[in-house]
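Pasting as-is:
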Amino acid sequence: MDKDVLSKVLPHLEIELNKAWKQVIAVQRVQYVRDEEEASSPEGAENLRWEVDVLEHQVRRLFHVLGVSLEAVGLPNARRELIRTRRRLEKGKAGLATTSFLPEVDALESEPIRYANNIVDALRAVSGESRDIETYQLDKLHELLRATAALVRKRNVEPTREADIQKVMNDYLGSYFSDYTSGFSIVGAIKNFEPDGGVPTLSAAIEFKFASTEQEVRTALAGIYEDVAGYGGSKDWTRFYSVIYMTEAFVREEQLRYDLLRGKASSWTPILVTGAGQRRAKKK
């Protein structure tokens, strides 16, 4: 096996692999995250067919690039096995676009991509390079956070406060990320920051906000500024996500993102989602 050639083809394989996994996420977004009525409409069905067709194309390209790479590095037997496996997978109902649903993490899995992923993992190990799955894991984190409203709805929860959202999302995030944790503090120079949850391996801290008015969205934004000023930075936690669950589309996400950049809070990523809910009336 030619390790020099392997070191050159591995980055290209990683790119194709990431494209394929991202397309699985795109299919899931249409199939499971979009509003059920829209997904069952002719337009929704057409969108799903389009995303599945793109997935089939991406997987076919992944197998092609992987086959050429295996031949280039001098692994003809592995290439022949890849071809046999591809032919077997193509005989399935959806061919190379076949996916299966994993209820424990509420996500789609792709046998063809997983097979290719395992080969790339083996090539990476032989090359001596460390395995870097951070990009895929971050994409999955973003996907789950952006699906907050749909996941809350799937649990038949109509939130009235942050805690209702936190409980649902702690279950989903804890099922997918083995090191997901909640109930911790990030020590700062001025004050401690207490996120709702976090993924240590991704250095990602997460908080959930509930907003039933535009003013509550602005209040949540002000809270982010306060946290940025208070905790003073952390070497262990470098990514911060604020998921704001709105009962109506009060504010555009692009505007909040711009406001945070202008306020020197570039390490924070705002994610706005819209779903059913109503702020519980305060007792008089």
